[in-house]
Automatic annotation (TrEMBL):
InterPro entries: ERP44, ERp44_PDI_b_1, ERp44_PDI_b_2, Thioredoxin-like_sf, Thioredoxin_domain. Mediates thiol-dependent retention in the early secretory pathway, forming mixed disulfides with substrate proteins through its conserved CRFS motif. Inhibits the calcium channel activity of ITPR1. May have a role in the control of oxidative protein folding in the endoplasmic reticulum. Required to retain ERO1A and ERO1B in the endoplasmic reticulum. The keyword Chaperone applies. CDD domains: PDI_a_ERp44, PDI_b'_ERp44, PDI_b_ERp44. GO terms for cellular component: cell surface; endoplasmic reticulum lumen; endoplasmic reticulum membrane; endoplasmic reticulum-Golgi intermediate compartment. This is Endoplasmic reticulum resident protein 44. PROSITE patterns: THIOREDOXIN_2 (PS51352). Forms mixed disulfides with both ERO1A and ERO1B and cargo folding intermediates; the interactions with ERO1A and ERO1B result in their retention in the endoplasmic reticulum. Directly interacts with ITPR1 in a pH-, redox state- and calcium-dependent manner, but not with ITPR2 or ITPR3. The strength of this interaction inversely correlates with calcium concentration. The keyword Endoplasmic reticulum applies. Residues 56-220 form the Thioredoxin domain. Residues 439-466 are annotated as: Disordered. Residues 449-466 have a biased composition (Polar residues). GO terms for biological process: protein folding.
């Protein structure tokens, strides 16, 4: 064993070079003996095509890792003794095998998904984190060893193969899967629960600890149990709260409720009460109540079948994901990536009246446009920079504007939102191109009175401000045209 230690100390650290953690990724073969591949723990280096890696600067190459090991010809006149003496080349090959055993850690194989196994694997996994990548993408290459090590860490905590699955999809080889999940950049990390893809992909730090913490968070219980109904009086009423009252925890009603909570816990706070604690609220059986933000809005009761997952999920999603969402710096990238223009109300945080008016008018005038534009509201103080782009300040709020990801356009007076059809026309003018034309050439001829002279006024609308929140090219390989897939 001392010989092995001397051999390793002599060559491995010097091959690895200064600043490496352990021995860097080595690969080689010994054709004269048997197929041999040496893969030592890789933390900063990766070999993609199994070719021997070059030495680090200033380091000596690993001695003859790819040269054939000559085997002495058998001589029938020689009597074999119990002890076997190896030549130096043979000993070297044996040492390589031993080094492989000593330095290669136990690793968890990342599941590769294809069209034949993807549904079966994801449907049977409680939680699955899937890495959509391309081998030629340098960001994908950087993520691979981190993703593998995070999988190893989590596998120790959740050893059951269906508890947590780390999987990957080669989007070059399986473009149909990439199109199915609308992959627009590499690498993309998406979370699945029992086969259902979560709306929010993973956008956090790309480190082993961050990925492991993210999975631990996803495996935590999404439902807070109430032990006394007086606890409801202390709820955070700035959030959307969903409360389920059940006779017993081991019931189909609760299992459906818990499954929905697992999917939507980022959008709502889920709470539950059981048995004697929940009895005062179960006068007609198990039920689910939605408590909207604020203290004045009335509670809403779910009237559908609690064992029907689709019905329960759709009702709760409608309450948890509002028509008009708040944009923040945390969710800006996600909203921008949806690819829809923004109709934004800028308002002071305490100005709930303007927000309520905007929400009501969007619901009244623009519900049919839900799939063509994102309805958002933003804090004037936090988003001062976009306001400056349209020559406004927080003192001018409330302000309504459209960001088309090319330009920003300002709605007239906020009070005009109450004029029937006015807000709807503003959105239609975006889709028709009228807003863009008017900024460059003045009012459309159809908007001028008969005989009135039309003046071509050259102007340029402010550039998009929220486009800057889109995924960074320093973090992803962006696919400009999804047809590339």
């Amino acid at each position: 064993m001392r010989v092995v230690q001397d051999y390793i100390s002599q060559y491995a650290p010097r091959w690895a070079g200064p600043g490496s953690e352990g021995v860097r990724g080595l690969s080689g073969s010994c054709p004269g003996c048997s197929p041999l591949e040496l893969r030592v723990q890789r933390t900063r280096c990766r070999c993609w095509d199994d070719r021997p890696l070059p030495p680090a600067p200033g380091a000596q190459p690993f001695p003859n890792p790819t040269q054939p090991c000559p085997v002495p010809a058998a001589d029938p006149s020689v009597t074999m003794n119990p002890a076997v003496f190896l030549s130096l080349p043979d000993l070297r090959c044996s040492l390589l095998l031993l080094v492989t055993w000593v330095f290669t850690p136990v690793t968890t194989e990342i599941t590769s998904l294809d069209t034949e196994n993807i549904d079966d694997i994801l449907n049977n996994a409680d939680v699955a984190l899937v890495n959509f990548y391309a081998d030629w993408c340098r960001f994908s290459q950087m993520l691979h060893p981190i993703f593998e090590e995070a999988s190893n860490v989590i596998k120790e905590e959740y050893p059951n193969e269906n508890q947590v699955v780390f999987a990957r999809v080669d989007c070059d080889q399986h473009s149909d899967i990439a199109q199915r999940y609308r992959i627009s950049k590499y690498p993309t990390l998406k979370l699945f629960r029992n086969g259902m893809m979560m709306k929010r992909e993973y956008r956090g730090q790309r480190s082993v600890k961050a990925l492991a913490d993210y999975i631990r968070q996803q495996k935590s219980d999404p439902v807070q149990e109430l032990h006394d109904l007086t606890e409801i009086t202390t709820l955070d009423r700035s959030k959307r709260n969903i409360i389920g009252y059940f006779e017993q925890k081991d019931s189909e009603n609760y299992r459906v409720f818990e499954r929905v909570a697992n999917i939507l816990h980022d959008d709502c706070a889920f709470l539950s009460a059981f048995g004697a604690v929940s009895k005062p609220e179960r006068y007609s059986g198990d039920n689910i109540i939605y408590k909207p933000p604020g203290h004045s809005a009335p509670d809403m009761v779910y009237l559908g079948s609690m064992t029907n997952f689709d019905g329960t999920y759709n009702w709760i999603q409608d309450k948890c994901v509002p028509l008009v969402r708040e944009i923040t710096f945390e969710n800006g990238e996600e909203l921008t990536e949806e690819g829809l223009p923004f109709l934004i109300l800028f308002h002071m945080k305490e100005d709930t009246e303007s927000l309520e008016i905007f929400q009501n008018e969007v619901a009244r005038q623009l519900i049919s446009e839900k799939g063509t534009i994102n309805f958002l509201h933003a804090d004037c103080d936090k988003f001062r920079h976009p306001l400056l782009h349209i020559q406004k300040t927080p003192a001018d709020c409330p302000v309504i504007a459209i960001d088309s990801f090319r330009h920003m356009y300002v709605f007239g007076d906020f009070r005009d939102v109450l004029i029937p059809g006015k807000l709807k026309q503003f959105v239609f003018d975006l889709h028709s191109g009228k807003l863009h034309r008017e900024f460059h050439h003045g009012p459309d001829p159809t908007d001028t009175a008969p005989g009135q002279q039309v003046q071509d006024v050259a102007s340029s609308p402010p550039e998009s401000s929220f486009q800057k929140l889109a995924p960074s090219e320093y973090r992803y390989t962006l696919l400009r045209d999804r047809d590339e897939l």
